[in-house]
Prior knowledge:
The protein is mostly helical. 56% of the residues lie in helices and 7% in strands.
Amino acid sequence: MSQFLTLEEVQQKCHQxxxxxxxxxxxxxxxxxKWADQTSSTxxxxxxxxTELLQAVSDEISSMEEKVQMxxxxxxxxxxxxxxxxxINEMEAKIMKKAIEQFPExxxxxINVHLRSxxxxxxxxxxxxxxxxxxxxxxxxxxxxxxFIPCPLLDIKTNQCxxxxxxxxxxxxxxxxxxxxxxxxxxxxxxxxxFEFLYEQYMGALNEFMQFLYExxxxxxxxxxxxxxxxxxxxxxxxxxxx
Length: 243
Ligand code: SF4
């Protein structure tokens, strides 16, 4: 008998979740309130709260899994999701870039070298696929996936994310609980559960913090609220921020 849950079992557990689980929204707002009171620089506060909010999303998913006894079958080195188009806003991109700049020298250099060869190799193809209209074209994910171009932050030798701790929301909120061979057979994430609804709490708290900083006249490198509304492919953001 398979040790993995069937899709039907997963669906039942997800249904159960809506009856037994309440998202701890307060936890998200407490993070930004804590950082609002700190004396550190704006950039440090924004970066720290961003990292903690991302972790709060992952923690919330873990609590839900525990509640209905589901265990993710996603494994280190499995990266089918990393060939999907990842769309983030300008603020998230800037904070990710800032976080990468603060990585230890060796790690940061490795990412910069990797990005240079990544864009040399995929530049032309990327121009084409990142011109797909993700707001209007309902097929854009399928079309993008067909190009078989990895995310700029994927190390294709190890199949691991080079910025794992700050990977954005889309990379955290699609989780597989069935046999991971399904993703392998389809060369794409299949039968995954989406926790993307947690974006509301994450972005709600981050937005509130940005607004607070804006009113304090201290937004530094953040353009509020424009940064929140400008979305693009992560491949385009990383290209424009490349060292
Ligand atoms: S940011 Fe990391 S986890 Fe997300 S798609 Fe890129 S390589 Fe994968």
